[in-house]
C-alpha cells in the first residue's frame, strides 16, 4: 500500500542545479515536505513536482522521458528554469524546453514556468516567484483529490502497458511454439528417412555377410552358423535401437524378434535319393577301376577289390557332398527369411518410436498452446477492467 500524497518532489536534469533549488524551496516552504528523488517513498504520489531545467541548454530526449515518468502521478507540475542569472537567453531555452517536454508528455504542455537563481555567483538567491507559485498551487483544495485521481490513472496506464507487453510476449511464444512444432515435424520426417535408410543398409550388409558365411559352411560349422545368424540379427536390431535412442533420447522397449526356426536336414526320401545317386556313381567308378586293373594285367580279384574300395569312397563322398550342398541351400533360404524378418522389425521399431515421439510432442505443444491461450484471455479480462473499450482476441488457430 502506497503512502498518502503530501510531498513536493524536486527533480530535474543532471547539471540543472536540482540540489540548490531543493534547499531553497525547503527554506521557503517550511510547512510542507519537500523531497528529492532519493528521498521520495516508492510508489508515492507527490502533490506537486518541481521540474528543474537549466538555462544553459534545452533538455534532451532522455530528460523528457524521465520527466514524463516522474510527473505522471503528480497532482500539479511546475517548471523551473535555474541559472537565469548567468544566461540572458534563457527564455529561448525555455521555449525549446516547452516544446520538447510537451512532445514527451501531453500534460506537460500547459504547466507554469518561472525563472530562478537558486545559487547565483553574485547576489542573493532568487526563488521567490517559484515559492509563490507553489504556495498558490498547494493552497488549491482540490489538489489532493486531483493527485489521487492522477495516481489511479497512472497506475491503470502502467498496468495496461504491462499487460500489453505481457500479451506481446505470450503471442510471440504462441507463434514460436507453433513454428517450432512445424520445424520439429520436418526434422522428424528427415530423421525417419535417415533411420529407415540406415536400418535397411544394415540389413542389406547383414544379408551379404551371412550368405558369404553360409557359402563356406561345413558339416562341422553348421551348428555354429545357426547361432551366428541369430546373434548377428540381434546385433543389427540393437544397433537400430541405439540410433533411435541417439536421435530421440528414448530407447525403444525390448521385445523378442520372431526369427524363423533353422531348417531341418534332408528328409528320408531325399536321403535315399542321395544314397542311390551316390551308389550309382560308386558302381560306375568300381567297374572302371576293375577294368583298368584287368587291362593292366593285374589279378582279377585285386582289381575287383580295388574297384569296390574306390566305388565305396566315391559313394560316400557324393552322398556327403550332396548333403552339404543341400544344407547350404537350406541355410541360404533361412538367412534370406531371417534378414527379411529383421528388416521388417527394424522398420516397425523406427515407425513406432517416431509415432510415439510425435504424439508426445503434439500433446505437449497442445498443452502449451492451451496455457498460452488461457493467459491471453486472462490478459484480455484484466485489460477490460482498465479500459472498457479494449478488445482482445485470443489466438486459437492450430
Automatic annotation (TrEMBL):
Keyword field: Coiled coil, Membrane, Transmembrane, Transmembrane helix
Organism: Mycolicibacterium rufum
Tagged with keyword Coiled coil: yes
Keyword Membrane assigned: yes
Protein name: Dynamin family protein
Residue ranges of the TM segments: 6-23, 273-293, 299-319
Coiled-coil features, chain-numbered ranges: 355-389
Lineage: Bacteria, Bacillati, Actinomycetota, Actinomycetes, Mycobacteriales
